[in-house]
UniProtKB/TrEMBL annotation:
The lineage of its organism: Bacteria, Pseudomonadati, Pseudomonadota, Betaproteobacteria, Burkholderiales. It holds the Pfam family polyprenyl_synt. PANTHER family: FARNESYL DIPHOSPHATE SYNTHASE. This is Farnesyl diphosphate synthase. Belongs to the FPP/GGPP synthase family. It is an enzyme of class 2 (transferase).
Length: 302
């Protein structure tokens, strides 16, 4: 196990610095008609970067990476973050959640107008796939294609976009726990699970280890949303960096409204245990960063 994995805080600091530098480089400022400004505003200087960290931790979980595999993992992590950022830009717009605060600052449509926000989101989505297929690099074509497919499946109608459609259609309705889980499996969980699987693709992880990572990613994705619902009730807007109490105000079904606050917290802990159990049986050489990330998701305060 590397020293970086022994010290999770140092590992996070090092990997976050790499991700921030790459995003700063790849999201150019000189797009036509100042489009680069809202693109950079939507992505840089904010966010937990959980998804890139999951990609990198999963890629490194089987042991040291070669140079092409390490570059693929960094590009994949940044690509997932761009998809996540674009989805937030669009979700915050008046036609959907109509929110004014994100990552502790005005949402993109508030800052730049709805048209620029819509185009910035579109451009970030396209840039995500551009990052996965670089010219003149040593990343195998098969790996590039597989990463594109994994990200597309997680972001599309049977993933994040489909989950958001269910969310919008469920306002004011009562959902059963299986219905709520299906919505969040698509809306939030698909991209988180895909982050783990894309990291595995970069490292060539297959078989039982890949199955364990998929189980870990599924449990983590659901735990993330359960805690999101808890924090929407117990935290304030300054802590969250977004509007607190929004789900209740919009009459949206949540784990807290369905189960109650204490039961929702207990459920998140059960999911954390499930994720950790999957890692423990994975046979992976270096799962510590993934284990620490799962713990961070459930213990977080924002």
């Amino acid at each position: 196990m590397t020293a970086a994995h022994e010290n999770f805080a140092q590992w996070c600091s090092d990997e976050l610095a790499r991700v921030e530098a790459a995003l700063n480089q790849w999201i150019v400022a000189d797009a036509p008609a100042n489009l680069g400004e809202p693109m950079r505003y939507a992505v840089l200087d904010g966010g937990k970067r959980l998804r890139p960290l999951l990609v990198l931790a999963a890629a490194q979980s089987a042991g040291p990476l070669g140079v092409p595999q390490a570059e693929a993992a960094l590009r994949a992590g940044c690509a997932v973050e761009l998809i996540h950022a674009y989805s937030l830009v669009h979700d915050d717009m008046p036609c959907m959640d109509n929110d004014v605060l994100r990552r502790g600052k005005p949402t993109v449509h508030v800052q730049f107008g709805e048209a620029q926000a819509l185009l910035a989101g579109d451009a970030l989505q396209a840039l995500a796939f551009e990052l996965l297929v670089p010219e003149g690099r040593d990343i195998p074509d098969v790996m590039q294609a597989r990463l594109c497919r994994q990200l597309a499946l997680a972001a599309g109608y049977n993933g994040m976009a489909g989950g958001q459609a269910i969310d919008l259609a469920s306002v004011g309705k009562s959902l059963t726990q299986p219905q709520l889980q299906q919505m969040h499996k698509l809306k939030t969980g698909a991209l988180l699970q895909s982050s783990v699987e894309m990291g595995a693709t970069c490292a060539g992880i297959t078989g039982a280890a890949l199955a364990a990572l998929r189980q870990y990613g599924a449990a983590l994705g659901l735990a993330f949303q359960v805690i999101d619902d808890v924090l929407d009730v117990v935290a304030d807007s300054a802590t969250l960096g977004k509007t607190a109490g929004k789900d209740a105000d919009n009459d949206k079904p949540t784990y807290v409204s369905l189960m109650g606050l204490d039961a929702a917290r207990a459920y998140a802990n059960d999911l954390l245990a499930e994720a950790q159990l999957a890692l423990a049986g994975s046979g992976l050489a270096q799962p510590r960063a993934l284990a620490a990330l799962a713990d961070m998701v459930v213990r977080r305060s924002h």
